[in-house]
Amino acid sequence: MASVNEVRLEARLVDEAARLLGEHGPAGLSLRKVAAAAGVSTMPVYTLFGDKEGLLAAMHREGFRRLGAALAAVPPTADPLADLAALGIAYRQAALSSPHLYGLMFGRAVPQFQPSAADREAADATYQPLVDGVARCQQAGVFGAGDPRRVALHLWAVAHGMVNLELNGQLPELGAAAEELYVEALGYAGLPFVATM
């Protein structure tokens, strides 16, 4: 089991690697450059990650670990629709706090990188809270019947699209803060599923 210091060092190295990837692209990412950016020798970097592929896998895992933790921190309340919105807010906050990891998690920041089956499974698990949130809205009669996975996909597509626009500086100037536009988009995304009276 890794010590607290090893866990902290790995998180620091992952963040440095993500920064280098964001600033210089895949060609600017190497274990030696990550070690230099973090101010450590190359030995712990090679010990932790082995090679560049291992580093990318660790970055992918850490990004989804952070996303999963952000979503898990949203406490369920008696209002499932408010809880669903809170999950959307947590998703955006996780993306904004680790923007370069987000690009690796959901983009093609490193086209040749392919996460392992186990890492893909762990990533897919972060989608389940959204599906569960939709199912709770359906059970409460807030949303109409239907496959909660399909509704969740629609909601995630809107959230993901808005986050990508914001991270890439492509949100149109509409006289409102990015967070306000995001929350508004989430509201519009949910309207087709609201149960009719």
Automatic annotation (TrEMBL):
Q: Which InterPro entries does the record cross-reference, listed alphabetically? A: Homeodomain-like_sf, HTH-type_TetR-like_transc_reg, HTH_TetR, MT1864/Rv1816-like_C, Tet_transcr_reg_TetR-rel_C_sf
Write down the DNA-binding region ranges.
30-49
| PANTHER family recorded | HTH-TYPE TRANSCRIPTIONAL REGULATOR RUTR (PTHR30055), POSSIBLE TRANSCRIPTIONAL REGULATORY PROTEIN (PROBABLY TETR-FAMILY) (PTHR30055:SF209)
Keywords for this protein? DNA-binding, Transcription, Transcription regulation
Q: Where is the HTH tetR-type domain?
A: 7-67
Q: Which organism is it from?
A: Dactylosporangium aurantiacum
Which Gene Ontology molecular-function terms are recorded? DNA-binding transcription factor activity; transcription cis-regulatory region binding
Q: Name one Pfam family in it.
A: TetR_N
Q: Kindly provide the name given to this protein in its UniProt entry.
A: TetR/AcrR family transcriptional regulator
Top-rank taxon: Bacteria
